Structure prediction request, 173 residues.
Amino acid sequence: MQIRVVPAGRSDHEALRNLFQLYAYDFSEVLRTEVDETGRFRQGPLDPYWTDSWRFPFMLRSDEHLAGFALVDRKSKLSGAEDVWDMAEFFVLRKYRRAGLGTRAAHLIFALHAGRWEVRQRHANATATSFWRSAISDYTGRCFSEELCENDRWRGPVQRFTSGGRAPSVVPP
Prediction:
């Protein structure tokens, strides 16, 4: 299975919106959210990912099939620092989970964006916390820190590390 992380273009907007509904569905179990009267989950605006220079949307592909997405910001949600990469959203379709696709995609994204990183999870999302600890540990050789934030900006675990922009060894050539 070939894993690719592809910058999302305007033509991917509808696919990203559709995948975001699946992401919101998965997240509804954690956040206890409801659909609106049209049967859709509320989602934040995605347009800024094509207009703001500090936002980067990616489509995740397994071979040629859509497998998920990642939204990366070049701004810390916690401090506002503009020299920190933030994994704003990350989603892998259930079919591709537990097969290494998410870890390999995360490693590719870290390698694309060298520098300081913050990856956040909500308290109730223990599965995500476990995934990110493992993926980041593998990428950094266990060289990362974790903090439990409890403030007005975030409530939950945050992993911090520095990516050297190296190509991860777990990704096939």
Summary: The domain at 3-163 is CATH 3.40.630.30 (Aminopeptidase). Confidence is low (pLDDT under 50) at residues 168-173. The CA atoms of residues 53 and 172 lie 30 Å apart. Strands lie at 3-7, 55-62, 65-73, 84-92, 115-120, 145-150, 155-163.
